[in-house]
Amino acid sequence: MNISSVDLNLLVVLEALLKERSVTRAARRVGLSQPATSSALNRLRAHFDDPLFVRTARGIEPTPRALAIAPVIESALDAVRSTLERPKPFDAARSTRAFRMILPDSPAVLLLPDALARISREAPGVDLQLKPTVLLDDADRALLDGELDVAVVPARLPSSDERAGMQQRALWREEFVCVLREGHPLAKKRSLTMDEWRALGHLLVAPRGTPGGLVDEKLAKMGLSRRVAVMVPQFLLAAPVVARSDLAWIAPARVARAMQEQYRLVIKPVPFELEGFTLFLRWHHRFERDPAHQWLRELLVSVAERLQRPPVKRAASDR
Q1: Structural domain boundaries of the chain?
Q2: Which residues of the chain have pLDDT under 70?
Q3: Contacts by 87-94, CB closer than 8 A, 24 or more apart
């Protein structure tokens, strides 16, 4: 049948009559007058072609037909009420939700350890699934199609209509530094000249497996080039390789500092002007008000904000 031809408000009256077994009490329950409730009952009787209720000494009693449809009506109205209610606050401690995200290994070095520590404390049942960074080139499509919940991307959101529906929030600004190993022939110099730097062999992190990038594009504009002696697909491979060679590595500053002590690296200024970049957390706007999604985004932003605070210096007596 065509449900649009039925006044679904009549089902609310029917539910009240089934619970109260009284037209007067049912009227009070649904906020109608007694005549209006009686009129609704007559319309229900006409629709179901059944009396639905008969008068007895104890009030009105449902017919077998009314008793048969009672659980269906109650279940349907409960589902409608649940749908119309405001979403319940996200209970991180009890959640078993799995979140899917892209997190390139450069920011992952900084963000992931603290984020996982927070998740294990606050939401031990929540799973975090990191997807291959090959999706990074098509992150917006993956977010739109629901393959991802969030993506950490090193680019500003374009204003074109093709990106409509995407939301983002800046995590942190990243600059570049030059990295050498301790004991490198140029390690003790305060800074390198362009000629000294270009004369070195260089390490390039190329996640897509292709040569070139920001550094080489900048050099090309200056009419210069460099020799890339080693190309690796991940930032996590760069530090140990540089630590055991005389290669130079242009690295994101925060990543280099995070690895400096472990691999005994020396950090120096880049010998030419090289613009940094901003990392953004991106998601599709349909998740904007989802409580669980909001919790994940705020957690990641909170961890990123802590990474930007200067380290607290310990007193000599605490060392």
Answers
A1: 3-84, 98-172+279-307, 176-275
A2: 1-2, 134-136, 156-164, 309-319
A3: 87/289, 87/290, 87/291, 88/291, 89/291, 90/291, 90/292, 90/294, 90/295, 92/122, 92/123, 92/126, 92/295, 93/122, 93/123, 93/124, 94/125
